[in-house]
Each structure stands twice: as C-alpha cells, then as structure tokens.
TrEMBL record, chain A:
Pfam families noted in UniProt: HATPase_c_2
Alphabetical list of InterPro entries matching this protein: HATPase_C_sf, HATPase_dom
Domain Histidine kinase/HSP90-like ATPase residue range list: 114-230
Gene3D superfamilies named among the record's database cross-references: Histidine kinase-like ATPase, C-terminal domain
This protein's name: Histidine kinase/HSP90-like ATPase domain-containing protein
UniProtKB/TrEMBL annotation, chain B:
The protein's name in its UniProt record: DUF4325 domain-containing protein
Pfam families: DUF4325 (PF14213)
Species this protein is from: Candidatus Vogelbacteria bacterium CG10_big_fil_rev_8_21_14_0_10_49_38
DUF4325 domain span: 21-82
Highest taxon of source: Bacteria
Lineage: Bacteria, Candidatus Vogeliibacteriota
InterPro entries: DUF4325 (IPR025474)
Length: 323, 104
C-alpha cells in the first residue's frame, strides 16, 4: 500500500490525495510526503492508521520524511502505529487544546469517554459543543454498530483557528457501506456510490426495511450529519469501496440552505472509480461561524425528515379505480 | 403511581450511549408501561442527546404501546436540543405506525 502526503490534503481538494492511494500489497505500507511542507486533514491520519493496522507496525515505512511540519504527524500520534521512531522532537504542552490525536474506539463505553473528553481538549465555545458531540457521537456509533470492524473506529480531529472550523475524520476497516446495506437493500446498493447515497436517505437503515426502523435503528444518522454539515456550510465526505460522495459548499449568499432528503439533490461531487477502500472513511469540516442555533437546525431537519416519510407513505396509497 | 428516571445519572450530560438507552427501555420503560403506569423521564443536567439515543429509548415503546406510551411517558427539564430530538422521534414514529415496510 502507498500513500502520499502533500501540503494541502484538505477536503476541498481531496481528489489529489485519493489519486495517490494504492491499496495493493496490504502487507506493506509506504508513506511518502512532500519534502518541505505537510498539511493534512485528520481524516488522512485516520485512514493511514487503518492502513497501518492492516500492514502491521513492522511493515510501515516513512519515506523522505524531511518536512519540518511533519512534526504534526508525531503530535497526532501517528508514530504509535508504526515501528519507525519519530524524527521530531515536539513540545506537546504548547499545542494542547487544539487537536485530538488519532484514537481507537472499540465500544460504546470508550465512545462516551471520548465524547466527554473531546470538548475540553479542543477548547470549543459552549454553544457549539452539542453539534460537535452530536456529529462525532453518531458517526462513531455508526461504525461500532454497522461496520463489523475488528479494529473499531479510528478518529482524529483538529481545530483550525484561521477558518474557525473543526475538522474530523473517522475511518474503519469493516465491511463497507455497500455490504452493510445489501441484506435489505440489494437493489439500491448495486454500486458503492449508490449504497453511500442510499444510506443518506432519511429512514434507510441497513438493519430493516420497516418504516420507523427497528427498536435500535432508525436510519437517520447520516441524513442528520449531512444536514448539519449543509446548514453549517461545511464539507462532508463519505468514502467507501470505490465510491466517494462529497457535499460541496453552497453559495454564501444563501442564508438558509434548503435541506434535501435525496442526496442527489444536494450540491455535491461523486465518483465510483476511487481506489478500493475496504471499510469506510467519513470526513467533515464543521464551521463554527454559523450563527444559527443547533435547536433551529434540528427543527429544520425534523421538518424535512417528516416530509420525506410522509411523501414515501403517499406513494403507497392506492388510487381509486375509476371505470 | 409514576416512575421517575433521572437520565443524567445513567447517560451523562450528553445522552448518546445507546446501550444505556436500550437498558433503560428494556428494564424500566417497557415493564412500567406494561403495568399501565406513568413514567417521567427527567433530563435535568442533560445538555443534549442524539436521535439514535432517543430512538433506542422510545421507538419500541411507541410502536408496541402506541397511545398508551404517548400518554404515559412524560418529559421533564428538557433542554431545547433534547426537546427537538424527542419531537423528531415522536413525529416519524407516529408517521410510520401504520405502514410496515418500504416498497420500491
């Protein structure tokens, strides 16, 4: 496997990073990097850790790691998943309060602890914490419940002062979204991108075809997260198998962006020819600039969700038989 | 008689752990409704929650006990976020009560 880190591996131009990925030869991982500068989204680190776990610590090799800013990889805990020692000397104290290093979450107890500890680590404003806890909580839970990953969920996050965003990446090496939907939604998940988009439709769960879901799953999680990202004017990306769906930013002049139950109606990019990722990677940039209250946002989501369920019901109504 | 459940004691100040919700549902909510008694879920000290948590807590009682659940479960000291999430689950569960499966 190969991965190349550049000086701008952010969601805006993630295609460059994706095209550098090579998942062949899973027993070895070679990490190449820009010689002078490294700037990576936390999702990149979460993905590298998943790849490193697959290859095994002994088989992870950094090539030409010369950039001074490569110390970021050390601060984020990447070297804990490699046999190679960090070439950097870092003063961890200086950087506290701005990031969450790569963390492995294997069960709901660890998830709850992580969510409790996360906010003080990031030093985020109190009025923004619910949206972030909500997003991370639901994404981690998705992995733990549906991915069947033996390595759990790998998560990392970083606060960026300049753009006032929190960037979060969560990755797993599980069965992938397509397979998790196929038991109940085979016709809707013939390809990875179809499955990713279907998983974002409100009320679609991989655990049932029943309206309202099962006692434990409603199939609302990804629709909520996509909607949170959309209203907060944020990037949101799902990568699983060969499919990638990326929610793009909407026009800043639109004060209240419209939420859509069908992800095809959102401004997005998609592809189904990415290097095959076993598992799933979810990345989100949550802008903290958004002034609307989280409750208003939830209320807007509730309206769209309810409308989607009603519309679906209406489609099943029998027509009168006029003869 | 009514049963009072302090959610924060079990789920913390951000209620997201579905295992906790499931335990509450199975061990407290369902048996209490089966006995025809009232339940008060007190969310004081809980700043927020997730849709998954509330779904795991309430969807089955609503599906199984329908109006009895809607009448007998009461909520106290909810933050605006908790209130909105409960309203969402109530809405889609009631919408889906009469239609069993999706058709394509």
């Amino acid at each position: 496997m190969k991965v190349t880190l550049s000086n701008s591996d952010y969601l805006r131009n993630f295609d460059r990073f994706i095209s550098s990925l090579d998942f062949s030869d899973p027993e070895h991982l070679y990490i190449y990097s820009h010689p002078k500068w490294i700037n990576v989204h936390p999702a990149v680190l979460a993905l590298i850790v998943v790849m490193a776990m697959r290859a095994g610590k002994q088989n992870v090799m950094f090539e030409n790691l010369t950039a001074t800013s490569g110390s970021y990889l050390d601060r984020m805990g990447l070297f804990e998943f490699t046999h190679q020692e960090s070439p950097y000397t870092i003063q961890k104290k200086e950087e506290s309060g701005r990031f969450i290093p790569v963390t492995v979450i294997k069960n709901s107890t660890e998830q709850s602890r992580f969510i409790t500890d996360m906010i003080p680590l990031l030093h985020l404003p109190a009025d923004k914490t619910d949206a972030i806890k909500y997003t991370v909580g639901e994404l981690l839970r998705n992995v733990l419940e549906h991915s069947e990953s033996t390595n759990g969920a790998i998560v990392a996050a970083q606060y960026y002062k300049k753009s006032n965003t929190i960037r979060i990446g969560i990755c797993d090496s599980g069965i992938g979204i397509k397979k998790s939907l196929q038991q109940y939604w085979a016709s809707r998940s013939k390809t990875d991108i179809e499955a990713i988009k279907w998983a974002m439709v409100p009320g679609i769960s991989g655990t049932t075809r029943k309206e309202g879901g099962t006692e434990d799953n409603a199939g609302a999680g990804l629709f909520f997260i996509k909607s949170i990202a959309q209203i907060a004017r944020s990037y949101f990306m799902i990568y699983s198998g060969s499919g990638i769906y990326k929610l793009l930013l909407h026009d800043k002049r639109i004060e209240k962006p419209r939420l859509h139950p069908d992800p095809d109606d959102d401004r997005h990019s998609e592809r189904n020819d990415a290097p095959y990722l076993q598992g799933a990677l979810v990345a989100i940039d949550l802008s903290l600039e958004n002034k609307s209250e989280f409750t208003q946002l939830l209320s807007a989501i509730r309206e769209v969700y309810g409308r989607a369920v009603r519309d679906r019901k209406r489609k099943k109504y029998k027509e009168p038989k006029f003869i | 008689m009514s049963m009072l459940i302090e959610v924060k004691d079990l789920a913390g100040d951000f209620a997201e752990n579905k295992d906790v919700a499931k335990k509450l549902r199975l061990n407290k909510i369902m048996p209490t409704l089966a006995d025809g008694e009232e339940i008060v879920l007190d969310f004081s000290g809980v700043s927020g929650t997730t849709q998954s948590f509330i779904h795991a807590l309430l969807s089955e009682p609503i599906r199984q006990f329908r109006d009895v659940a809607l009448e007998k479960i009461k909520y106290k000291n909810c933050s605006d976020v908790v209130r909105e999430v409960i309203k969402t689950v109530y809405e889609y569960m009631q919408e889906s009560l009469d239609s069993e499966s999706y058709e394509e």
